[in-house]
Design goal:
about 50 residues, alpha+beta, two-stranded antiparallel ribbon, about 40% helix, flat
């Protein structure tokens, strides 16, 4: 991650990655990691309808 900003409802990040990694795969990996981290930190996220 090169830089980022966070607001109440969303965030922006600027990343650099290996040229072998597609943008799609990078976004997929970021979403998986973010989801896993949030679910571990906030255990009730899985059971709530968002």
């Amino acid at each position: 991650m090169i830089s980022g900003s966070i607001s109440k409802e969303h965030f922006h990040i600027l990343v650099s990655c290996m040229s072998k990694l597609s943008v799609f795969k990078l976004v997929q990996l970021l979403e998986e990691k973010t989801s896993r981290t949030l679910q571990m930190k906030f255990k009730d996220l899985k059971s709530r309808d968002l």
